[in-house]
Structure prediction request, 358 residues.
Amino acid sequence: MRVVLAGGGTAGHIEPALALADALRHLDRGVGITCMGTERGLETRLVPARGYELELVPAVPLPRAITPSLLTVPGRLAGAINASAAILDRVQADILVGFGGYVATPAYLAAKRRGVPIVVHEANPRPGLANRLGARLTDHVFTGFPDAGLPKGEYIGTPIRRDIVNLDRLSMGDKARSWFGLEGDRPTLLVFGGSQGARSLNQAALAAAPVLRAAGVQVLHVIGPKNTVDHEPPPGDPQYVLLPYVDRMDLAYAAADFALCRSGALTCAELTAVGLPAAYVPLPHGNGEQAINATRIAGGGGGLMVDDADLSPDWIIHNVLPILRDPERVAAMSEAASVLGRKDADIILARKVLEIAR
Prediction:
C-alpha cells in the first residue's frame, strides 16, 4: 500500500502528518509513505529528519488583495496540479491524506483527477481554504477541534508524536531539567512562540526576567530560529536558559511547570495531551482560530488567555508568577488541561486511512 501525505509550511501542518506516518508504520510496517510539500516550508528539514521520502511541488500562494499577480495564479496552479499528479502516478498512490498548507490544494485536485481516495484532516477550528476545498471532494473528513465547521467532519483530535503522547512529565522532570542545564527543584517557566518564535512573547518574558528570577523561578526560553534579542539575561541563579530552537520539545514540556506560548492547534493539542498548563497568547492576526483554541482550554481551567496587545512584563508578574509559586494550583490546572487532551488521534486516523484505502 502507498500513502501520500500532503501538508506543509508550518509545523502545525507537518507534525500531524508525520505523526500519522509513524502510526501507519506502527500498524503496517510494509506501508509505503511519501510526503508532499514545497521548498518554502519547514517540511524540507522536518520530513527528511524523520526518515520519510519528500517530494516537492511548486507553491501557489493566493494574493490577499486583487493585484496583477492574481492573473498568474491559474497557470501556476495548473502546473502544481500536474506536478502533484505526476507524484501520485510515480508512487502508485492508493490514498492521499491532506493536512492543509500550500501543497494541499494542488494535491487534492490531482487526487480527484486521478481517482485516488482523499482524506482530509483539519486541526484548526476555522478551516483554511485548502481544506475547505478538500472537504468538498471527499466524504472522509476528520478534525482536531470539536466544532471545526466542515461538512461531514468527524472529531478525532490532532495526531501528535508518540514521544510526546507517551511523556510522563513527573518521572522525566529531573532528567529534562538537567538536559537544559536547569536545577531540579525550582519552579520552571517554559516560553516559546511556536516553530518560528514570537517577538512579543520574547520581549515581555525577557523584561520580566529579573522579577521572575528574584522570586526563585527559572526559565527555559525558546526565542525562535530566526529571532534575535537585544540583550540576554546575565548568568546567575536561578537559570534563564535562552535557546534559538529546541528539537526535543518532549523534554522541554517535561522540564516545565507552566508555559507562556501561542495557541496554535498543534501547541494546544500537545500541551493538553501532556497536561502542561499555560498562559496562551493568541496570534493577533489571521482568522481568529488561535483565540478559539485558547478560549476552550482557559474555559476548562487548563490555562489562561491574554490578548497579544495586553501581554506585558507586569501581566506575567501579576498573573503567571503567582501560579508558579503555588504548586497546588499548578497541579489542579495540569489535571484540567489533561482532561481536554486527546492522545490517540494518530492511531485512530491511521486505522481509518488503512480501512479507506483497502
The chain has two domains: 2-160+343-357, 167-339.
